[in-house]
Amino acid sequence: MNQFNDWKKNIDQFFGKDFFGDFEGFMKPSIPQINLYQYDNELLCMVNVPGMSHPKNVDVVVDHATLILTGRIEINHRGGHQLKSEIATGTFERSIDLPFAVRSDKIDATYKHGLLIIQLHRFISDATNQKPIRIRHLEDE
Fold first, then answer.
1. HSE-up of 117 (CA within 13 Å, CB side)?
2. Which residues contact 133 (CB under 8 A, 6 or more apart)?
3. Is 94 a domain residue?
4. Distance CA 96, CA 82 (A)
5. Which domain holds residue 10?
6. Within a domain: 71
7. How many domains does one find in the chain?
8. For each of the chain's 141 residues, which pLDDT tens digit applies?
9. Do residues 12 and 36 both lie within one domain?
10. Are residues 45 and 62 in the same domain?
11. Pair 88, 114: CB distance under 8 Å
């Protein structure tokens, strides 16, 4: 074991600090898995959350142009000996960068059959709305 740690330390020194940590995303799947779809002024995010007994077990937060998901995936199966384990379980925290800022006051989220579906709407600031400005004619005053 000490030889492995020495080898890893030498590789990190040669290629840069935490060389193997840069590959973690390739080796370990992101949980929960998501699909993100963009429509004109809307985003639809489908989140794979199997085994969730109640939607309150997942927190969904929107911060400007970031969707943050935190929670726990638990698949409780009693008895028997597990032969294969391909479904990622455990606690998660995932931040998803969105292509544009979204409204925090207009979010719709539903959960059914293991899919959490989050509908987001583009934030359009009031600064883009054109308003006519009344011009006072000073000679009349």
1. 7
2. none
3. yes
4. 32
5. 1-26
6. yes
7. 2
8. 556 566 666 666 676 666 555 554 455 567 899 999 999 999 999 999 887 777 888 899 999 999 999 998 888 777 888 888 888 888 999 999 999 999 988 899 999 888 999 999 999 876 545 556 565 656 655
9. no
10. yes
11. no
* Dist CA 18 CA 89 (whole Å): 26
Flag whether 95 is in a domain: yes
Sign of CA dihedral 38, 118, 64, 27: negative
The Cα 46–Cα 71 span in angstroms is 15
Is residue 132 a part of any domain in this protein?
no
Query: Checking DSSP bridges between strand 66-73 and strand 90-97, what pairing results, if any?
Result: antiparallel
Strands 66-73 and 42-48: unpaired
If asked whether residues 102 and 72 sit together in one domain, one would say yes
Q: What is the 3-state secondary structure (H, E, C) of the chain?
A: CHHHHHHHHHHHHHHCCCCHHHHHHHHCCCCCCEEEEEECCEEEEEEECCCCCCHHHEEEEEECCEEEEEEEECCCCCCCCCCCCCCCCEEEEEEEECCCCEEEEEEEEEEECCEEEEEEEECCCHHHCCCCCCCCCHHHC
88 contacts 31 by C-beta, under 8 angstroms: yes
